[in-house]
Amino acid sequence: MDALLSNCRLCPRECGVNRLLGELGACRSGPEITAARASLHLWEEPCLSGKNGSGTVFFSGCNLGCVYCQNAQISRGNTGKKISSGRLCEIFFELKEQGAHNINLVTATHFLPAVLNAVEKAKQNHLGIPFVYNCGGFEKADMLKRAEGLIDIFLPDLKYMSPQLAMAYSNAPNYPEAAKSALTEMVRQQPECVFDETGMLKRGVIVRHLMLPGNLKDSKKVLRYLHQTFGDKIFISIMSQYTPPAKGVNDFPELNRKVTKTEYEKLIEYAISLGITQAFVQEGETADASFIPDFDGRGI
């Protein structure tokens, strides 16, 4: 594991920094697992949250740094507590005792080897509930291969098809190609969605797409790619909950508003026209709801 961190290339940024010596790359994270909250979360897709909630562990830091990030409090790496892989495994069991339907690993990309060690230990000790890998989609397929047999459900974003948008909003022009490669590997590992008798997802891939204001054209390209490439092997979660950051996005004024009802309806109509049937959609004033918990160290 030390070799992976001394010349860090865990994600497509391939920063090459020595995190063991305190050098910081794009994720702004050191060598230790850092997490900001572990709790039951009711705001995931219904087949993940269920009645009790998804046992969600929010990791600090992020390899993307999107200008509109709604979790900036932790994604910039400034909030969280350093924990061992052993402690993380204990947290999994504590969440299960609280009634979690699954363990939801949010933005674990930059801690992947250590996190997977905790997952493997939990499985060896018969945790007995699925593990969800919840990420922004900016992953390396060869790193994801390490997750085979350990991750039951993949929950990635597919944010953009346009390298220009990916560059502007996430400083990652290679995002589309990296995300496509990562998705292919995820679907290889979990090629079908399997639900239990109560409708909870046990295995499979759900791809999220957060519609951004003014970007209907690119959102349509995302849905077309997903449907044409993976068909009914995956579910697609089409999200309208985009909320502008409180301080606004100075360089991108188009992002300083919510998605309109008309924009979202056009995207859903397009999904229907493509023949997409395995999808989750959001209804009502979802952008007014609070999907963001307090990152207060609870459960860590």
TrEMBL record:
Q: How cofactor binds (record note)?
A: Binds 1 [4Fe-4S] cluster. The cluster is coordinated with 3 cysteines and an exchangeable S-adenosyl-L-methionine.
User: Could you say which cofactors this protein requires?
Assistant: [4Fe-4S] cluster
Q: Which UniProt keywords apply?
A: Iron, Iron-sulfur, Metal-binding, S-adenosyl-L-methionine
Radical SAM core domain residues = 57-189
Would I find Metal-binding among this entry's keywords? Answer: yes
Q: Which GO terms describe its molecular function?
A: catalytic activity; iron-sulfur cluster binding; metal ion binding
User: Which residues are [4Fe-4S] cluster-binding?
Assistant: 62, 66, 69
Record has Phosphoprotein as a keyword: no
Question: Which Pfam families does UniProt cross-reference here?
Answer: Radical_SAM (PF04055)
Q: What is this protein called?
A: Radical SAM protein
Biological source species: Congzhengia minquanensis
Lineage per the UniProt record: Bacteria, Bacillati, Bacillota, Clostridia, Eubacteriales
